[in-house]
Design a protein that fits this description.
It is a single chain. The protein has 109 residues and is mainly α. It has a single domain, classed as Leucine-rich Repeat Variant, CATH 1.25.10.10. α6 packs antiparallel against α7. The N and C termini lie far apart (41 Å).
Length: 109
């Protein structure tokens, strides 16, 4: 498969933020490695998408749970793949929206 046929080739390093957002937005075929690379993106919307993505690895969710942006942390709490121990930490977050999302998620498990 050539780079033009593979939508993920170089996706995390693409200078076009819209392209990085598209790849990070819940595409079922987005590989975990691409999501791992996008978790450190400077664009908040990309990190929010990664936090919500069903293919995001647990260790990446743990990393994003300490993101400086509260909305990113809130979306980590909303991801069904986030481990209970991470949710327990998020339930004590200084941001009330993060706390609420984490407590709701813990109550559902």
């Amino acid at each position: 498969m050539t780079n033009t046929e593979n939508p993920f080739s170089g996706a995390a390093k693409n200078p076009d933020v819209k392209a990085r957002r598209r790849v990070s937005y819940r595409r079922r075929d987005t590989p975990a490695g691409v999501l791992r690379a996008l978790a450190g993106d400077r664009d908040i919307d990309v990190r929010i998408n990664v936090a919500l993505h069903p293919n995001t690895p647990t260790n990446v969710l743990q990393q994003l749970a300490s993101d400086p942006n509260g909305t990113v942390r809130e979306q980590v709490a909303r991801n069904p793949g986030t481990p209970p121990e991470v949710l327990a930490v998020l339930a004590l977050d200084l941001d009330s929206d993060v706390q609420e999302a984490a407590r709701e998620a813990l109550g559902e498990r």
